[in-house]
Write a structure and sequence with these properties.
Number of strands: 9
Number of helices: 18
Order of helices and strands: HHEHEHHEHEEEHHEHEHHEHHHHHHH
Strand content: 5-15%
Radius of gyration: 33 Å
């Protein structure tokens, strides 16, 4: 086949299967698929999750002599281990609980056709042995049966598992790996596909605009560069999700760098969508500021704890006075006074020499002394200053951001001498 014919054939395949991109890695994978399609050789497609491996077996089947026969795509990772042998190879009536009738299984039904085994690395070892026999002899036995059956099936498999590691750990048979890997096809990760990323973005944006009758989103030059620099650990699937999210949620239909950064996860290895901040909320610009926020909240917890201690102390004094007046000398705190305490404080250790009141107070005092060693007054002042600065001096908004009442904020401002 000449180079021109090869290029023409590739473009035809891309149009037929709606494949977008012109990167060398993608073209190489499609080219190998077209070359191997007329044969019966087993193919193993390797690539990260979300790169679009499922397109290749369809291309192989549709361009093979088996194209008029059945094609089945089976996700090996989604079938329970206890039933996968029955699903693939069939079973006899009564061979296990629930086997009301007999079943052909995929290898029986797909005779003369093609079976695509996705996530083949997840197959149990017992099933791997059965699969190896089919690949070597074309023979298999139904679950619960004794009769040897024949099938003529083309197998295309795919995995995102590191197969060499799986083999070394005993999770995958080495002989099966080499049987499946007669013709390897490597699907490139999205981060290695260069400008294909922008082309795919345009496709997904156009699809969303047409489907939901929305104005189509576009990218500024800076946003395009950011899109191509990002690692895309979730590959094409992740890009599609983010494009769909922006199509629905973004008020600006021209996506610039600042807007795009709101949707791309800050952790470059994360496949999760970024959390979109509500209007008026704040994204922490540094780890130190986040620490200030945590410590300020801790100060509030300590203040609440001290207030609760005072309440408990008053209740215990009242109980002690009542008991003294009635002639009781019990050391235990009545349950009613401890119901609202945290579990760690409501059942303190008790001894004859040390009444329960001391244990409760000592435990709380220890927490307070530990927390106050963090110099929380300084932290509180910094947090309030930053909150006021971010809200242009608006105390009401600053209080909302800090999660405290207006009155508490005013009291803190006065306490820190910030009202001068």
């Amino acid at each position: 086949m000449s180079a021109n014919m090869n290029t023409t054939e590739l473009q035809r395949i891309k149009q037929r299967y709606n494949i977008v991109g012109n990167s060398d890695g993608l073209n190489r994978a499609l080219d190998v698929a077209l070359q191997v399609a007329p044969t019966d050789l087993s193919v193993l497609i390797v690539g990260e999750s979300g790169v679009g491996k499922e397109i290749i077996p369809r291309v192989i089947h549709d361009n093979s002599p088996r194209r008029r026969e059945k094609y089945f795509a089976i996700n090996c990772g989604s079938i329970p281990e206890g039933t996968i042998d029955s699903e693939l190879f069939g079973h006899e009536k009564g061979s296990f609980t629930g086997a009301i009738g007999e079943s052909e299984g995929y290898f029986g039904i797909a005779n003369k056709g093609t079976i695509f085994l996705d996530e083949v690395g997840e197959l149990p070892l017992a099933t791997q042995a059965r699969l190896l026999r089919v690949l070597e002899t074309g023979e298999y036995i139904r679950v619960g049966g004794t009769e040897i059956r024949k099938t003529d099936v083309r197998i295309v498999a795919a995995t995102n598992v590191n197969m060499h590691k799986a083999i070394s750990e005993g999770r995958f048979r080495e002989d099966l790996y080499y049987r499946l890997n007669t013709i390897p096809i490597q699907m490139p990760p999205l981060r290695d596909r260069g400008e294909d990323i922008v082309l795919l973005f345009r496709l997904f944006a156009m699809q969303m605009a047409e489907k939901y009758r929305l104005p189509k989103i576009t990218l500024t030059e800076g946003a395009k560069e950011l899109l191509m620099k990002y690692k895309w650990p979730g590959n094409v699937r992740q890009l599609k999700n983010i494009t769909e999210q922006m199509s629905v949620l973004s008020k600006n239909r021209e996506i610039d760098v600042e807007t795009l950064q709101q949707y791309i996860p800050r952790d470059p290895e994360s496949t999760q969508l970024a959390i979109i901040q509500k209007e008026g909320s704040h994204s922490y610009e540094s780890e130190r500021e986040l620490l200030y926020k945590i410590l300020y909240e801790l100060r509030g917890n300590v203040t609440d704890l001290r207030r609760e201690l005072n309440t408990v102390r008053k209740q215990m004094e009242e109980v002690r006075d009542l008991n003294g007046a009635a002639g009781f000398t019990a050391n235990a705190i009545p349950a009613a006074t401890t119901d609202h305490l945290p579990a760690s404080l409501s059942t303190p250790a008790r001894t004859a020499a040390a009444p329960a009141t001391l244990n409760v107070e000592d435990a709380i005092a220890e927490e307070i002394s530990e927390s106050e060693s963090l110099n929380l007054s300084d932290v509180g002042r910094v947090m309030i200053e930053k909150a006021l600065e971010r809200n242009n001096g608006n105390r009401k908004k600053a209080a909302q951001e800090l999660g405290i009442s207006d009155r508490t904020l005013y009291r803190r401002i006065k306490q820190f001498g910030m009202d001068k």
